[in-house]
Amino acid sequence: MGENPKIIIISIVVFSLFIGIFLRIAYWQEPIIEERAEVQEEKLEEPVEEEERFGLNGWIMEANPENSFLIVKSAKDGKSLKAFIDEETRLLKIEFPEEYPEQGYVITVKTEIGVADFQKGDFVSLRSKENIAGKTEFDRVIYVYLYPFIVSADEKQKIQESSD
């Protein structure tokens, strides 16, 4: 064997290190992975509290002027919420001008409306004085803004034809 014994010893040490590293990565990671999986399961089991929510954007599903409420399907999560309207609630239709100025700001036109002016499929934005997270109905509505330009006629037709 004409090879240098130092090279053989160094080769054996380097080879052993590679084997050790491979075994460490392949087999000793399993307890860590299992521990992380247990922590994930614990997090999933904890009840998730909804954040505070005072506003809602969505589509009108029902407007009831006799009982002064609107049912709005949330654009965020698809849930329907009933908003009771009182005499302090501002109901406004937000419209843009036909022509835009070349420079400067676009001034929107805000028109006071009533509950009867809302139709199924209209897109609205509303704000409440109370936290509405996790609720299905609420009152103390500050304002409801109707945005007729957000929903196309086709989209509105589909919403009007849907059952909810």
Percentage beta strand? 25-35%
Percent helix among the residues? 25-40%
Mean pLDDT: 81
Radius of gyration: 31 Å
Cα-to-Cα separation, first versus last residue: 86 Å
Structural class category: alpha+beta
The topology string of helices and strands comes to HHEEEEEEEEH
How do the strands line up in the largest sheet? Answer: 5-4-8-6-1-2-3-7
The biggest beta sheet reads: 8 strands, mixed
How many helices does DSSP assign? Answer: 3
Summarize the structure.
With about 160 residues, the chain is an alpha+beta fold. Helices cover about 30% and strands about 25% of the residues.
Features:
8 strands, 3 helices, alpha+beta, 164 residues, elongated
Explain what this protein looks like in three dimensions:
- By secondary structure, the chain is an alpha+beta fold.
- It has two domains: 5-45; 55-161, no CATH class.
- The chain is 29% helix and 27% strand.
- It contains three helices and eight strands; from the N terminus they run H-H-E-E-E-E-E-E-E-E-H.
- The protein has an eight-stranded mixed beta sheet with strand order 5-4-8-6-1-2-3-7, with no helix packed on it.
- The longest helix is centred in the N-terminal third of the chain and has 23 residues, at 5-27.
- The protein is elongated.
